[in-house]
Specification:
9-stranded antiparallel sheet
């Protein structure tokens, strides 16, 4: 089961807002894809939240784009920021990336983002959103959301 960003945001608005703020705090984040042999590849990426979707834009024929064309599964981690404070916590998103080839959809993205041409564009289908943070300098708190389920919150000391 997968979900759009809009459906996730409607179901869990607080966690969605926190996730967008974490990704909005920095430009560059880390995308994990799967190589042809199944081993992981990590790459830097910029992401956008537009029109109820989480978008991944990439340079033409980049290895991460070729990986996603072959196997759409991905993991995306927000830039943790400088130092050790991780302001707002660590946010990770898992899912599948669907390449967008529709000229109108790409034109709308191009108008909003103005990416270098040409580019690959992927719309995401979420399978998991996870936030980890420290509460009261005592607890490690992990919030886990999956489509069709409420957020589970786990606390450890």
């Amino acid at each position: 089961m997968a979900s759009t960003w809009a459906a996730f945001a409607a179901a869990e608005p607080d966690l969605a807002t926190t996730a967008e703020q974490r990704f909005g705090a920095y430009t560059h984040h880390v995308l994990a894809t799967l190589r042809r042999d199944g081993s992981p590849r990590t790459s830097g990426i910029e992401v956008r939240f537009l029109g109820g979707e989480l978008w991944l834009g990439m340079m033409p024929d980049s290895l991460k784009a070729l990986d996603l064309r072959r196997d759409p599964r991905f993991a995306l981690q927000a830039n943790p920021g400088e130092g050790t404070t991780m302001g707002g916590g660590d946010v990770r998103i898992g899912g599948r990336a669907v390449e967008v080839t529709d000229p109108a959809a790409k034109a709308a993205y191009r108008k909003e983002v103005e990416p270098p041409e040409p580019f690959h564009l992927f719309r995401t289908e979420l399978t998991e959103v996870v936030r980890t943070y420290v509460e009261d300098e005592t607890y490690l708190v992990t919030q886990v959301w999956k489509p069709g389920e409420p957020v589970r919150t786990l606390k450890r000391t």
